[in-house]
Amino acid sequence: MAVQLDPQLMDILACPSDDHAPLRPGTPDDPAADVLTCTSCGRGFPVQDGIPVLLLDEATPPTSGPDAPAVGA
């Protein structure tokens, strides 16, 4: 199920990392995922019971981009 959050809330939510970039619903591979993805660093933040969990410790690492882990590392 795709993330369904109030548009006004989506306008103010930002990644908790130092860049504070906006978040977008879903992931690049699964736009319907219950995740908010940072538009800058690519971390994915889970949405549990309609509540975004914006903790860096709970985020999934980026799958592509400058912060993505190197393949084979």
Describe it:
This protein is mainly beta and 73 residues long. It has 1 helix and 4 strands. The protein has a 4-stranded antiparallel sheet, with no helix packed on it. Strand 2 and strand 3 form a beta hairpin. The radius of gyration is 12 Å and the shape is globular. The C terminus is likely disordered.
In short:
The chain is mainly beta and 73 residues long.
Low-confidence stretches: 69-73
Shape summary: globular
> How does the helix and strand content classify structurally?
mainly beta
The helical percent reads under 10%
Average residue pLDDT: 85
Number of strands: 4
* Alpha plus pi helix count: 1
Question: N-to-C SSE series?
Answer: HEEEE
Please supply descriptive tags for the structure shown above.
73 residues, mainly beta, 1 helix, 19% strand, globular
Task: Write the SSE topology.
Layout: H1 7-12, E1 23-25, E2 35-38, E3 44-48, E4 51-52
Antiparallel strand pairs: 1-2, 2-3, 3-4
